[in-house]
């Protein structure tokens, strides 16, 4: 669906319609500021742009739960949640943000329930909760049931409920529109709008807006093996880099240990919680050697690293679907779990293995390998969702955050730094909903201050001109680019398509290169090799891509070309940031720098598109860094 | 294509393709509804209205795959190695997002859950339906394989096993936009028109002394069980494409919209039951359902849509 017309000027444009984007829309519309504005007869002009149809967001694939110390099942305390989050993130967490996350988690979950989420229930009707890795009582003493869940479909429930509430609130959507540019004003200090490509028609729109919120999700498609949907191409992060802004902690990518080889589809942690055991080519239950205490249920990054160490030592196995392929998997042995029990408590896991591996987990060992799952880093934001530039310390002054006026971000594409170097399960939906709502509320205050439709204001009209010109210029440039991409389809000979490049092939090649260089572990050499390949081969190929059909309607190749270019730019920044961090922390394992180095790297990396890297101190409030042991 | 090994075989994807004519070339619409040629078949005027103008053709792609490969994986291989212009929606790839509903061998289902082994069949079974809704009964010689000369199977395998043909077309009942992409906005519009959101009383639970003691609405597991399955609907449109009433072009709000209503009618927290039942007690609502139950067959979330239709119809009539 597309809006009937594009407004001259918007109060706010939200890019992305997953948990974060929809939470932001609702947080804004339900805020007292906007309610007052509406009471005075002014309707804010808001547009939610999504590259997908409604309800297709990858939020819907989240399975396990959303963490909150509700104490519905056993005693819990938000301070414990706060501590677990800091520790899980290997102390690269901004503790002021993590405190908000833990403190307002119960409120967030209750609000979701009251909006309609079909949570699983306790016998007396409260929201049910289950255990999740790394969530403990009494500051690490014992596991605690903290994850509120809806069978194994919590993401689906939250996504659909948020969308339903947006329907109730009358939110205007531009669906299957792809944002190609984030536009700032001339000085680069204030947002001016976005340029969007309507895939239905192939039209380019200049979307001018006084406020923009990016909620585009992660970038799992940087890697060949990923649990992410095909659409997670890091668009928001790449748009931010292209606008001359920085990314924070881009080097931290979580690999979930048990992706079903070679699909990357997630097999829930619950498979191991119920008794599944990882085995190498010799049949050895190798986790005993790496984590004697927690074995197969150690933290995600620990298990992923152990699996890769086995594979690197030559004890990996080939995917039975590709028996002559690389031995880059290990076995997940679930045969010890009672068959009936397995069907009952792991229905989704069993179904996935049957449907996508054609194996019976009650009888067969299942090939798995770590799968790219979550980007901890992203667009740097304050706890109110405002995007900022990090201005490093100079001789005279301390480093400081300089807010980009009117620009916001939320969800996986952003980094408020509650996840630090490694995210805990159950904290991603919480981050998206909680900080999405907060960003929406802070957006509302700015809108209420100076609404587009304010009958009293005439000065703002001239200020709008400063926003209009750069957006229109960017839109013109994109129109020309689209015409050129389509024209190339016209001129080329269809018969030489064998040797011809296309974005789908490029994405596959990029995924393989990135996986080889940085999946789970890396060294200076693997990073240098990947950077060289990126600069010498992949980036030039990305720039040379063109369409193979000149029909504008649903020309998917056009958006795929931009997605490929976005991923290449993001890969470049990620590799550069990884190269600069000469330590191992959380999800990042440098084989050449195997230990954590708080003296030099207890800091957030801030990288821009020119590989200019500065370091921002971590906010330590309550928990001084110590060794992370489970 | 490292997966070429002894266990693989060839399969032919026979794709119904469509590329709309650019707007400027399109003939001006006839101003009068009486100008349309009448047809003895009731549905043909509806399907003619839904069919945009453009180039229509059938294209074969021959691939070397293992039987357990999904049809979506096949199409992604086509995009990557043979034809980047082929258009189809896809996202999560494992049956949760609901974006890739199409017609496979005439049956609506999801690309990512359908496997080659399950759907490939040998000619002449792959009868195609032409523009007017007739099946070709002869050999499918009209099929033009303009890309099969570039297929990768020829290099390998005259002796490789042939799994047969899989015919792909856009989801029935919706206007085609390009290749396998259909415009499912009519379904989403029907759903949104029926107030698909929880209308609860907004009251916080309190103790006898009036203190708030529970913030969430309480709902016991057996109350949840009454609508939990319905809340799993992913709005893919498979049930709508399977419904002969809806896909046949008659006025019917469709099974997906009724499931959405039923989800709230059966939710103990919702207080708008009477209002919701009124909304679907219309000629194009429950009265249009013919209880064919084709809607149940391929629901990817396992909802027995036909049975649920029956229940909600009964609920409306029993008032």
TrEMBL record, chain A:
<dbReference type="InterPro" id="IPR037099">
    <property type="entry name" value="Fum_R/Succ_DH_flav-like_C_sf"/>
</dbReference>
<dbReference type="InterPro" id="IPR015939">
    <property type="entry name" value="Fum_Rdtase/Succ_DH_flav-like_C"/>
</dbReference>
<dbReference type="Pfam" id="PF00890">
    <property type="entry name" value="FAD_binding_2"/>
</dbReference>
<dbReference type="InterPro" id="IPR030664">
    <property type="entry name" value="SdhA/FrdA/AprA"/>
</dbReference>
<keyword id="KW-0813">Transport</keyword>
<dbReference type="GO" id="GO:0050660">
    <property type="term" value="F:flavin adenine dinucleotide binding"/>
</dbReference>
<dbReference type="InterPro" id="IPR036188">
    <property type="entry name" value="FAD/NAD-bd_sf"/>
</dbReference>
<dbReference type="InterPro" id="IPR003953">
    <property type="entry name" value="FAD-dep_OxRdtase_2_FAD-bd"/>
</dbReference>
<dbReference type="GO" id="GO:0009055">
    <property type="term" value="F:electron transfer activity"/>
</dbReference>
<dbReference type="InterPro" id="IPR003952">
    <property type="entry name" value="FRD_SDH_FAD_BS"/>
</dbReference>
<keyword id="KW-0274">FAD</keyword>
<keyword id="KW-0249">Electron transport</keyword>
<dbReference type="InterPro" id="IPR014006">
    <property type="entry name" value="Succ_Dhase_FrdA_Gneg"/>
</dbReference>
<protein>
    <recommendedName>
        <fullName>succinate dehydrogenase</fullName>
        <ecNumber>1.3.5.1</ecNumber>
    </recommendedName>
</protein>
<feature type="domain" description="FAD-dependent oxidoreductase 2 FAD-binding">
    <location>
        <begin position="11"/>
        <end position="429"/>
    </location>
</feature>
<keyword id="KW-0285">Flavoprotein</keyword>
<dbReference type="InterPro" id="IPR027477">
    <property type="entry name" value="Succ_DH/fumarate_Rdtase_cat_sf"/>
</dbReference>
<dbReference type="Pfam" id="PF02910">
    <property type="entry name" value="Succ_DH_flav_C"/>
</dbReference>
<keyword id="KW-0472">Membrane</keyword>
<dbReference type="GO" id="GO:0008177">
    <property type="term" value="F:succinate dehydrogenase (quinone) activity"/>
</dbReference>
<keyword id="KW-0560">Oxidoreductase</keyword>
<feature type="active site" description="Proton acceptor">
    <location>
        <position position="300"/>
    </location>
</feature>
TrEMBL record, chain B:
<keyword id="KW-0004">4Fe-4S</keyword>
<dbReference type="InterPro" id="IPR012675">
    <property type="entry name" value="Beta-grasp_dom_sf"/>
</dbReference>
<protein>
    <recommendedName>
        <fullName>succinate dehydrogenase</fullName>
        <ecNumber>1.3.5.1</ecNumber>
    </recommendedName>
</protein>
<dbReference type="GO" id="GO:0051539">
    <property type="term" value="F:4 iron, 4 sulfur cluster binding"/>
</dbReference>
<keyword id="KW-0560">Oxidoreductase</keyword>
<dbReference type="GO" id="GO:0051537">
    <property type="term" value="F:2 iron, 2 sulfur cluster binding"/>
</dbReference>
<keyword id="KW-0479">Metal-binding</keyword>
<keyword id="KW-0003">3Fe-4S</keyword>
<feature type="region of interest" description="Disordered">
    <location>
        <begin position="16"/>
        <end position="55"/>
    </location>
</feature>
<feature type="region of interest" description="Disordered">
    <location>
        <begin position="130"/>
        <end position="151"/>
    </location>
</feature>
<dbReference type="GO" id="GO:0022904">
    <property type="term" value="P:respiratory electron transport chain"/>
</dbReference>
<keyword id="KW-0001">2Fe-2S</keyword>
<dbReference type="Pfam" id="PF13085">
    <property type="entry name" value="Fer2_3"/>
</dbReference>
<comment type="similarity">
    <text>Belongs to the succinate dehydrogenase/fumarate reductase iron-sulfur protein family.</text>
</comment>
<dbReference type="GO" id="GO:0008177">
    <property type="term" value="F:succinate dehydrogenase (quinone) activity"/>
</dbReference>
<dbReference type="InterPro" id="IPR017896">
    <property type="entry name" value="4Fe4S_Fe-S-bd"/>
</dbReference>
<keyword id="KW-0411">Iron-sulfur</keyword>
<dbReference type="InterPro" id="IPR036010">
    <property type="entry name" value="2Fe-2S_ferredoxin-like_sf"/>
</dbReference>
<keyword id="KW-0408">Iron</keyword>
<dbReference type="Pfam" id="PF13183">
    <property type="entry name" value="Fer4_8"/>
</dbReference>
<dbReference type="InterPro" id="IPR009051">
    <property type="entry name" value="Helical_ferredxn"/>
</dbReference>
<dbReference type="GO" id="GO:0006099">
    <property type="term" value="P:tricarboxylic acid cycle"/>
</dbReference>
């Amino acid at each position: 669906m597309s809006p009937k017309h594009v407004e001259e000027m918007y109060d706010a444009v939200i890019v992305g319609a997953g948990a974060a984007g929809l939470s932001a829309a609702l947080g804004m519309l339900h805020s007292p500021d906007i309610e007052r504005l509406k009471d005075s007869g002014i309707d804010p002009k808001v547009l939610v742009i999504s590259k997908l149809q409604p309800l297709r967001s990858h939020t819907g694939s989240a399975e396990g739960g959303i963490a909150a110390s509700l104490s519905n099942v056993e005693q819990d305390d938000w301070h414990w949640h706060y501590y677990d989050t800091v520790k899980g993130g290997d102390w690269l967490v901004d503790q002021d943000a993590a405190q908000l996350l833990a403190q307002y988690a119960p409120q967030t979950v209750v609000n979701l329930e009251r909006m309609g989420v079909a949570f699983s229930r306790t016998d007396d009707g409260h929201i049910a909760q289950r255990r999740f890795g790394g969530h403990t009582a009494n500051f690490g003493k014992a596991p605690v049931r903290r994850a509120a869940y809806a069978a194994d479909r919590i993401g689906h429930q939250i996504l659909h409920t948020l969308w339903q509430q947006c329907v109730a609130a009358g939110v205007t959507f531009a669906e299957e529109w792809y944002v190609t540019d984030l536009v700032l004003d001339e000085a680069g200090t204030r947002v001016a709008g976005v340029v969007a490509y309507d895939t239905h028609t192939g039209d380019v729109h200049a979307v001018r807006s006084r406020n923009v919120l990016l909620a585009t999700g992660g970038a799992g498609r940087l890697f060949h093996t990923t649990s992410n949907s095909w659409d997670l191409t890091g668009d928001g992060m790449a748009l931010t880099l292209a606008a001359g802004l920085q990314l924070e902690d881009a080097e931290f990518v979580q690999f979930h240990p048990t992706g079903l080889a070679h699909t990357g589809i997630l097999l829930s942690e619950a498979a191991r919680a119920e008794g599944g055991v990882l085995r190498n080519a010799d049949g050895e239950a190798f986790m005993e050697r790496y984590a004697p205490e927690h074995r197969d249920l150690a933290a995600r990054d620990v298990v992923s690293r152990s699996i890769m160490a086995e594979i690197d030592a030559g004890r990996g196995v080939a995917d039975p679907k590709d028996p002559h392929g690389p031995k880059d998997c290990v076995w997940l042995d679930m045969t010890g779990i009672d068959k009936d029990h397995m069907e009952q408590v792991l229905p989704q896991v069993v179904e996935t293995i049957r449907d996508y591996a054609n194996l019976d987990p009650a009888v067969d060992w299942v090939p798995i390998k770590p799968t790219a799952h979550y980007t901890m880093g992203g667009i740097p934001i304050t706890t109110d969702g405002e995007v900022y530039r990090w201005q490093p310390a100079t001789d005279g002054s301390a480093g400081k955050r300089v807010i980009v006026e009117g620009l916001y971000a939320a969800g996986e594409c952003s980094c408020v730094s509650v996840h630090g170097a490694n995210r805990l399960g159950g904290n991603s939906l919480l981050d998206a909903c909680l900080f999405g709502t907060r960003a929406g509320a802070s957006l509302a205050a700015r809108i209420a201050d100076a609404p587009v439709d304010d009958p009293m204001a005439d000065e703002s009209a001239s200020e709008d001109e400063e926003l209009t010109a750069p957006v229109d210029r960017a839109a013109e440039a994109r129109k020309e680019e689209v015409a050129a991409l389509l024209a190339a389809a016209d001129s080329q000979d269809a018969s030489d398509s064998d040797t011809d490049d296309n974005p789908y092939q490029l994405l596959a090649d990029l995924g393989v290169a990135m996986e080889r260089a940085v999946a789970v572990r890396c060294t200076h050499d693997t990073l240098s090799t990947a950077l060289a390949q990126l600069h010498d081969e992949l980036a030039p190929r990305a720039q040379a891509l063109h369409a193979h059909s000149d029909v504008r309607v649903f020309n998917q190749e056009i958006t795929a070309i931009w997605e490929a270019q976005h991923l290449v730019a993001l890969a470049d920044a990620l590799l550069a940031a990884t190269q600069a961090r000469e330590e191992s922390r959380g999800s990042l394992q440098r084989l050449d720098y195997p230990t954590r180095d708080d003296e030099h790297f207890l800091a957030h990396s801030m990288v821009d598109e020119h590989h200019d890297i500065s370091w921002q101190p971590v906010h330590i409030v309550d928990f001084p860094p110590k060794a992370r042991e489970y | 294509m490292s997966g070429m090994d002894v266990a693989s075989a060839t399969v032919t994807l026979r794709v119904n393709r469509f590329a709309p004519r650019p707007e400027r070339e399109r003939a001006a619409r006839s101003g009068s509804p009486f100008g349309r040629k009448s047809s003895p078949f009731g549905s043909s005027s509806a399907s003619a209205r839904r069919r945009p103008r453009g180039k229509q053709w059938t294209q074969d792609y021959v691939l070397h795959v293992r039987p357990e490969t999904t049809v979506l994986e096949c199409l992604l291989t086509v995009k990557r190695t043979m034809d980047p212009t082929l258009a189809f929606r896809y996202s999560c790839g494992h049956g949760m997002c609901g974006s890739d509903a199409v017609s496979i061998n005439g049956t609506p289902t999801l690309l990512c859950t359908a496997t080659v082994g399950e759907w490939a069949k040998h000619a002449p079974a792959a009868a195609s339906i032409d523009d007017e809704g007739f099946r070709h009964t002869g050999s499918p010689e009209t099929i033009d394989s303009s890309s099969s000369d570039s297929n990768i199977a020829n290099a390998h395998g005259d002796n490789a096993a042939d799994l047969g043909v899989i015919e792909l077309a856009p989801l029935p009942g919706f206007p085609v936009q390009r290749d396998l992409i259909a415009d499912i906005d009519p379904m989403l519009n029907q759903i949104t028109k029926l107030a698909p959101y929880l209308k609860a009383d907004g009251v916080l639970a309190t103790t006898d002394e009036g203190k708030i003691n529970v913030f969430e609405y309480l709902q016991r597991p057996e109350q949840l069980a009454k609508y939990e399955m319905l809340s799993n609907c992913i709005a893919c449109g498979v049930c709508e494409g399977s419904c002969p009433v809806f896909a046949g072009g008659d006025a019917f709000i469709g099974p997906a919209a009724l499931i959405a209503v039923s989800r709230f009618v059966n939710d103990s927290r919702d207080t708008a039951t009477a209002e919701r039942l009124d909304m679907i007690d219309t000629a194009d609502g429950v009265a249009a359902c013919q209880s064919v139950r084709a809607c149940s067959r391929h629901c990817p979330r396992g909802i027995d849509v036909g049975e649920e239709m029956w229940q909600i119809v009964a609920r409306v009539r029993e008032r």
